[in-house]
């Protein structure tokens, strides 16, 4: 087993409160709308959206690595704009990874937008770290999700206001 970590910092032209509401609080409703080519559906399986909640995201065949992921919200801190969640089933869990934890921090930027800092920690099932290609695919996915959300919020200024 090999432990690894990847980080990503993205600037977004949307205010922190709107982006927080859309991505940390309602992504299970928003993502199938903004990325219909990738998401079939998403739902809260258990909980109320706070810490302890279990969510399931179902993917279309365009997402080649998995048909779904199920995650567990560990932390949802509305004051500091921090969310942490663990993928507990689906995705690369059980295939390539033993565990995968996401930590996403939202920070105000000087231009009225915000900065999203994502850290992904993982443990592989074997003695090989994730390849550069696998890490780039993960980063690409994170960028694509955030860019689609940003585009939707910019095109719909009253959404999540």
TrEMBL record:
Where the record annotates domain Bet v I/Major latex protein, the positions are 7-156
Any one Gene Ontology BP term: defense response
Signal peptide boundaries: none
Which is one GO molecular function term here? signaling receptor activity
Q: Give one Pfam hit by family name.
A: Bet_v_1
Taxonomy, superkingdom: Eukaryota
The record's listing under PANTHER family reads: OS03G0300400 PROTEIN, OS08G0374000 PROTEIN-RELATED
Listed name of the protein: Pathogenesis-related protein 1-like
- Record organism: Phoenix dactylifera
């Amino acid at each position: 087993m090999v432990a690894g970590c990847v980080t990503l910092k993205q600037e977004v032209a949307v205010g922190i409160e709107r982006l927080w509401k859309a991505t940390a609080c309602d992504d299970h409703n928003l993502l199938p709308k903004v990325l219909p080519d990738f998401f079939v559906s998403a739902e809260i399986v258990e909980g109320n959206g706070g810490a302890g909640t279990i969510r399931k995201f179902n993917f279309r065949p365009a997402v080649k690595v998995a048909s779904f992921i199920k995650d567990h919200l560990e932390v949802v801190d509305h004051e500091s704009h921090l969310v942490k969640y663990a993928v507990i089933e689906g995705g690369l869990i059980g295939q390539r990874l033993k565990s995968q934890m996401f930590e996403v921090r939202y920070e105000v930027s000087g231009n009225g937008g915000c900065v999203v800092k994502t850290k992904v920690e993982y443990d592989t099932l074997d003695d090989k770290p994730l390849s550069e290609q696998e890490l780039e695919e993960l980063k690409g996915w994170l960028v694509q999700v955030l860019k689609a959300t940003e585009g939707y919020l910019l095109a719909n200024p009253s959404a999540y206001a």
